[in-house]
What we know:
Distance between the termini: 26 Å
Strand order of the largest sheet: 1-2-5-6-7-8-10-9
Radius of gyration: 19 Å
Number of strands: 10
CATH class: Alpha Beta
Structural class: alpha+beta
Strand content: 25-35%
Low-confidence stretches: 1-11, 22-34, 68-72, 139-143
CATH superfamily: Gcn5-related N-acetyltransferase (GNAT)
Amino acid sequence: MLSCMQQPETLERSTYLAKARIYNGTKLRGPAPAKEPRKLNWEAHVCDGVVRRLRVQLVASVPRPSRAGEAMLCCPTCAVIVWADGGEQSSELAICRARICTRVSDDILHLNWLSRQQERPQDVDVEDWHVLPELCVSGTEQLGEDPKTIAQGIMGLSAAIGKLLGVRSIELNPEDNGSGKLVRFYKKSGFQSVPQPHKLMDPLMRAPIDVVANLAPAGWLQLIVPTTFTGQKWLWDWDVVDEGSNQ
């Protein structure tokens, strides 16, 4: 486990659902009030291999009415985007895009995109630039002895932030080209294939959020997330003042 791992809000989710019910159509007698998307931008400087800077952006959507039984609840979505930059010019090394859609499930983080630079950046002179130093990686004993990559590190950081937002598992659709390489990569990262009810459905892989969060180097979460961040409360309670930036 990450030594710096913060725990999600301990208040019951019903607290936030109760807050969402203020937009109940029967009370407002009309549509939910317009809300601008909420954005948080965080940045932290690190020194892990060639990684010199981490950037995170959270974008919570306008709450929109969604039927839940007879009530009209406003169910937000939240995009979690993480970048790792490195080299003298802080070139982008890798990016991870994920999303929480509470209308579908409020405890699953869906990984939409994970990629890294295919070629070594010109201002990086390390041959194995995409590999994280062994000393900064946690969880090796659980996920094998293979070196962990920068892509796995920021995927782990995305999962750790998702956990603060109340997520319990992370899933993805591996867009493998038939070689099986991508599927093997995600299995080494803690994911397992999930049977689909129909053959024509896209393949699905899922992992416990703690397992994937453990891929992030120790200290990253503590460095990037402000101590004032309230996690689930920020996502569900739109009266909460944005936790700004840690820059």
